[in-house]
């Protein structure tokens, strides 16, 4: 049986008291590993290690930090196939997606290794001749990072990359479901020669860990990716110590398909995007608004393609979509479908759990879901697409923005005027037109409204771990 240990102060160790918890394969429901369950003593050791690690790492030159990150990148690349197999085993997504995710993780880390050397300050114009005024950027301090189960490599990689590039130390708590991938990434940094205490890994009960870490005076910055509900709890804890936070929370992304688009091509591209990671993506397209003239053609092509998806274990090369990551998602999606149908929505495809071991669910398409239905109000975070027609631009802008979320938004049109107007009208942090890619290493990913604030990736993703200090120097 695989075992995922804690990594504290440069050492792999069992939890104090020896407790551990089971990790399941969502394609079979079987226990495939156990993860050490951190006790309070372990968390305090990790905090002390991160405090010392910060004092070491902040003094390492950005060029040397960059070299360690690059070395870890080389090791992850060499181990990519093995890590992808672990990722699929503990999370469920197809092997092709797992390898793709590791590719993105590597690209992000490489980009941050380069950006490490660019934390530039600024010299300001002085008001008097004997004063020099300049701004310097410095690492903010030890970081508590919380990563989710939907991208077990990419999200830890982004947080670790930004923090280490800036000169911060990190305590990472990955999601309970996916400790093995995070441990493989941490192992690469260990093997790359990262000094002890700079990166620490803990597993256990999320609420216990986040409360202990965020309340500690050691931690200066919180980075969380997960649900809006948990983000609000962590922000409340961060507020007690007035600590900086990056919150990458949920989304409920709209897609506006205008009537100049090819309805069948647009529908096929949309199903491919929706089925990525079985819809368990914060930027997953969910609310589809289709201009009335092409509505029926789009709807029929979408539903047919959804029914044709080959759903199966992630390690079967024939599978186009894997299982959901945990049993909670099945319950949530089932409740959303029942609620929507009860309120008059029409089921066009799917709708049910697949009768086999593991957490498989059909790609589900609903039409005309009322605004007060659960599926419209809460993030489905699963293989659920909601379709409806629209007539005017003003009407669709209002409908697309009628949600507390504001992460990603999409439009499909060949008319530049429509694309520009729609991109500017969406209340969202990231927009894609005629494609579903909203994140690259150089571009900041972040939301507005209740989807959170702050950025990961890009120059903003390095700045997230830096403070700006203003220095006034009067010379004799
Ligand atoms: P959840 O809200 O219980 O947990 C979401 C994540 O937060 C998990 O990774 C979990 O480990 C972590 N978490 C939970 N309580 C925590 C706490 N007190 N302190 C620190 N971390 C904590 O929900 P879930 O059932 O695991 O996931 C479903 C919901 O989570 C979805 O509806 C979706 O909104 C959200 N989610 C979002 C993302 C994203 O990329 N933004 C990723 C995963 C999950």
UniProtKB/TrEMBL annotation:
<feature type="domain" description="Aldehyde dehydrogenase">
    <location>
        <begin position="12"/>
        <end position="471"/>
    </location>
</feature>
<protein>
    <submittedName>
        <fullName>NAD-dependent succinate-semialdehyde dehydrogenase</fullName>
        <ecNumber>1.2.1.-</ecNumber>
    </submittedName>
</protein>
<comment type="similarity">
    <text>Belongs to the aldehyde dehydrogenase family.</text>
</comment>
<keyword id="KW-0560">Oxidoreductase</keyword>
<dbReference type="InterPro" id="IPR016163">
    <property type="entry name" value="Ald_DH_C"/>
</dbReference>
<dbReference type="GO" id="GO:0016491">
    <property type="term" value="F:oxidoreductase activity"/>
</dbReference>
<dbReference type="InterPro" id="IPR015590">
    <property type="entry name" value="Aldehyde_DH_dom"/>
</dbReference>
<dbReference type="InterPro" id="IPR016161">
    <property type="entry name" value="Ald_DH/histidinol_DH"/>
</dbReference>
<dbReference type="InterPro" id="IPR016162">
    <property type="entry name" value="Ald_DH_N"/>
</dbReference>
<dbReference type="InterPro" id="IPR050740">
    <property type="entry name" value="Aldehyde_DH_Superfamily"/>
</dbReference>
<dbReference type="Pfam" id="PF00171">
    <property type="entry name" value="Aldedh"/>
</dbReference>
């Amino acid at each position: 049986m695989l075992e995922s240990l804690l990594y504290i102060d440069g050492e792999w160790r069992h939890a104090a008291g020896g407790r551990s918890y089971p990790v399941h394969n969502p394609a079979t429901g079987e226990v495939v590993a156990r993860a050490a369950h951190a006790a309070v003593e372990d968390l305090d050791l990790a905090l002390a290690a991160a405090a010392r690690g910060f004092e070491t790492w902040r003094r390492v030159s950005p060029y040397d930090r960059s070299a360690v990150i690059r070395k870890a990148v080389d090791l992850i690349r060499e181990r990519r196939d093995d890590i992808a197999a672990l990722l699929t085993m503990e999370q469920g997504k197809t092997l092709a997606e797992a390898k793709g995710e590791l590719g993105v993780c590597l690209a992000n880390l490489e980009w941050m290794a380069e950006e490490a050397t660019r934390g530039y300050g600024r010299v300001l114009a002085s008001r008097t001749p004997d004063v020099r005024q300049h701004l310097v950027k410095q690492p903010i301090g030890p970081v508590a990072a919380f990563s989710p189960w939907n991208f077990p490599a990419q999200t830890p990689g982004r947080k670790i990359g930004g923090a280490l590039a800036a000169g911060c130390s990190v305590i990472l708590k990955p999601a309970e479901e996916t400790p093995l991938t995070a441990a493989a990434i941490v192992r690469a940094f260990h093997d790359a020669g990262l000094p002890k205490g700079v990166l620490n890994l803990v597993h256990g009960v999320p609420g216990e860990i986040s409360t202990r870490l965020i309340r500690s005076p050691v931690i200066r910055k919180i980075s969380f990716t997960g649900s809006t509900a948990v983000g609000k709890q962590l922000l409340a804890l961060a507020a007690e110590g007035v600590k900086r936070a990056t919150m990458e929370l949920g989304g409920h992304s709209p897609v506006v398909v205008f009537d100049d688009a090819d309805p069948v091509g647009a529908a096929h591209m949309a199903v491919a995007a929706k089925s990525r990671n079985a819809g368990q993506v914060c930027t997953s397209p969910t609310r589809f608004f289709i201009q009335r003239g092409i509505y029926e053609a789009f709807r029929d092509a979408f539903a047919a393609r959804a029914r044709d998806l080959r759903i199966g274990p992630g390690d079967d090369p024939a599978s186009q979509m894997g299982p959901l990551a945990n049993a909670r998602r099945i319950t949530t999606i089932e409740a959303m479908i029942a609620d929507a149908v009860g309120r008059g929505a029409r089921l066009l495809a799917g709708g049910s759990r697949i009768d086999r071991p593991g957490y498989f669910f059909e790609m589900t398409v609903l039409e005309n879901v009322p605004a007060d239905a659960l599926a419209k109000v809460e993030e489905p975070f699963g293989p659920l697409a909601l379709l409806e027609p629209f007539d005017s631009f003003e009407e669709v802008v209002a409908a697309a923005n009628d949600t507390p979320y504001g992460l990603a938004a999409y439009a499909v049109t060949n008319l530049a005027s429509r694309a520009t107007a729609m991109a500017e009208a969406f209340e969202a942090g990231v927009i894609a037109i005629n494609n579903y890619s909203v994140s690259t290493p150089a571009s900041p990913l972040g939301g507005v409204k209740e989807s959170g604030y702050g950025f990961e990736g890009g120059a903003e993703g390095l700045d997230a771990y830096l403070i700006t200090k203003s220095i006034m120097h009067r010379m004799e």
